[in-house]
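2024-03-11 09:14:02 DEBUG pipeline.ingest accepted 1 chain
2024-03-11 09:14:02 DEBUG pipeline.ingest length=335
2024-03-11 09:14:03 DEBUG pipeline.predict start
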Amino acid sequence: MKKAFILLIAFIILISCVFASCSDKEKNTQNSSTTGEGLEGNDTEFGIESQDVTDKDGKKVTDKKGNTVTTNVAVVYKTDKKGKRYGVILDKDGNPAKDKNGNEITIAADDDNTGSKKSTTNTPSKNAAKTTTQKPTKPEKTTGTTKKDVPLTDSNSTTKFEGKEVVPKTSATGTEVNFSVKDQNILKSMLEVPYLYTKNYENSDGVPIEIAAHTAVWMSARDGNSTGIFPSSPVVLNLFKYYGQTVVNFKTKCNKYSDKTSIKYIKANDTFDIKKHTKKVQNVSITKIEDLGNNNYYKVTGKVSGCSKKTVVAIVQKNKLDSSLGFSVKALNWK
């Protein structure tokens, strides 16, 4: 009787272990699905890497102090057969830049994506997107939407892409400053992307797919494109430039909003179909700009008309991901 009781207990323990194992497998499957929604499951990941500048003979260019001159280049990240991450340098159209032999120009990627970027010895291709240092210009007059007695920011200020800083929240406050007329008009146009006002987000939340879709259409129209079928690379690279980060899973999720945004992803040939360009909706008038420090972050406050919102607060970063924009929008709060 005692032996049978022991066997019964052993059998119950065995069954419990089997069920626990099944439960763990199910939980792991669910977790895999969840993480797939994060950066790991993204279809295309872009970034910025630092590259040494070389002369026509392939020698590194140095400044007066003997330091190597570097430039920031846009890359799309890939993984080799050994699982090591690297970047492929992109040209201005979002396509892989190639050397004279027709080979893609690659650059070493920072392994943990948090420290300073490692540079490569590759000579930049003529087709690669270039970052230029502009000569100082005379301060421009401001629009008067911000205080006239606050300092004008340096239009040549360059953002460092080290991946270490934390993007401020829309509730942050800073020292009031002023932008040039040109910069204010650029920000005004960026905040007037049709239907951008439909979503709020902090940078840690990730960019909402719906407003990213509206932005993709706006960026395409801004590039002078007519409607139709476009390769995916320029579209998603434009989003990276506008938001200063990869819009996670944009390809796989944007079709959910295609009836509202007029852009649809076609998986069969990796293209986007833009049906129409959206008409302007909201108007934004900038009323205050605050310097938040920490690598060229600014808080921009404005009045809104033409839609259901009255005010907007945007966290922007001054950078040169797109030479004609000069900013990226990092967070939004419409009220």
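2024-03-11 09:14:41 DEBUG pipeline.report Helices lie at 2-35, 181-191, 209-222, 232-243, 250-253, 258-261.
2024-03-11 09:14:41 DEBUG pipeline.predict end
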